[in-house]
Amino acid sequence: QVQLVESGGGLVQPGGSLRLSCSVSGSIFRAYPMAWYRQAPGKQRELVAFILNNGNTNYADSVKGRFTISRDNAKNTVYLQMNSLKPEDTAVYYCNTQYSLFPWGQGTQVTVSS
């Protein structure tokens, strides 16, 4: 069974940066477009960004220009570089395929606060 393990979250001040990582078990990683999602308290989980197998990317309007998604197929890992963080970016961040086909991991908490 595929397992997703997110890491890299933490507490950061507004304007700061974090880099999230998601390790995907199994050899099927490179077959799927991958994505990052987030869920803030009291809100539904939302798609933040996704990256296709050819490297093309797409971002939610709220993070466009600040976040960058990337992947390393050799390491079965997808990354999310987050810059110019805002308090409204506070959420638990999850990775999954573009259509959330795998069981969800535990996520990684990102808190943006002064």
Per-chain topology:
Blueprint (H helix, E strand, L loop, with lengths): L3 E4 L2 E3 L5 E7 L9 E6 L6 E6 L5 E3 L7 E6 L4 E6 L8 E7 L10 E5 L2
Helix content: under 10%
**How large is the share of residues in beta strands?**
over 45%
Unreliable residue runs:
none
Number of strands: 10
Distance between the termini: 40 Å
In quaternary terms, these chains amount to single chain
Which sequence of strands runs across the widest sheet? 2-10-9-4-5-6
Indicate the mean pLDDT. 95
Class inferred from helices and paired strands: mainly beta
**How would the global form be characterised?**
globular
Number of helices: 0
Gyration radius from CA atoms, angstroms: 13 Å
Q: Give the ordered list of helices and strands.
A: EEEEEEEEEE
| Main sheet attributes: strand count, strand direction, barrel closure | 6 strands, mixed
Description:
- With 114 residues, the chain is an all-beta fold.
- The chain is 0% helix and 46% strand.
- It contains no helices and ten strands.
- The protein has a six-stranded mixed beta sheet, with no helix packed on it.
- β7 and β8 (77-82) form a beta hairpin.
- The radius of gyration is 13 Å and the shape is globular.
